[in-house]
Amino acid sequence: MVNEIMQTHRVPSLYLDTSVIGGYFDEEFKDATRELWRQMQKGLYRFVTSVVVDQEMVKAPERVQKLMASTFREKESYLPLTEDVIDLAQAYLDHKVVSSGYVDDARHVAMAVVHGIYIVVSWNFKHLVNLRRETGFNSVNVLQGYPQVRILSPLELIYGLQEKEI
Predict the structure, then answer these.
(1) Is 116 helix (H, G, I), strand (E, B) or coil?
(2) At what angle are helices 154-161 and 30-41 packed, to 10 degrees?
(3) Could you report the per-residue pLDDT of 15-27, keeping only the tens digit for each?
(4) Residue ranges of the domains in the chain?
(5) Which residue, 42, 90, 143, 164, has most beta carbons within 10 Å?
(6) How many CB atoms lie within 10 A of CB 50?
(7) How far is CA 106 from CA 39, 59, 137, 141, 157, in A?
(8) Residue 16: helix, strand or coil by DSSP?
C-alpha cells in the first residue's frame, strides 16, 4: 500500500497526532520519528496536524512545543475542528471504536478523514495503531459515507519505503 501511494505524482499528506510529535524526543521512538521527519524534508510526505493536537501541546515540554511550531508553520497545516469532524468522532464513540474517555483519539481520526487525509500516523498502539481499531474506524467511515483511512506508526511508513520489488 505504501509503495502504491508513493508512486502517485502527488506527495501524500500525513496526519500526525500528538504522540508522533512527542516521539521525536522519546528514547523508544526517536530514531523512527526522526527518520520520518527526514523523509518529509526530502519531499516524500507533507505533514498536517490539527487544532486538537495544538490543544494537547499545552501540556507538552517546551522542546516538543518548539518542534510543533517549527514543523507546522503554515496555517494550512492545521486542520480545523468542524461540525462534521465532531459528528464523525461521535459516531466512532457511539459504535465503541474507542471509549468516551478518548474523545481526542476519535477526533484525530475524524479530523483526518473529514479533511481528506487518508493516512494517520501515531505511536498510540492502544487506541489507534492496531488492526481492530482501524477496522472499527473504517466500518464507521463506510456507514457514514466517508472513505477508509490507514492508521500507521512511523516505522510502517519508513520501512514501507525501503521495500524492494520482488
Answers:
(1) coil
(2) 50
(3) 999 999 999 999 9
(4) 2-161
(5) 90
(6) 27
(7) 27, 19, 9, 12, 21
(8) strand
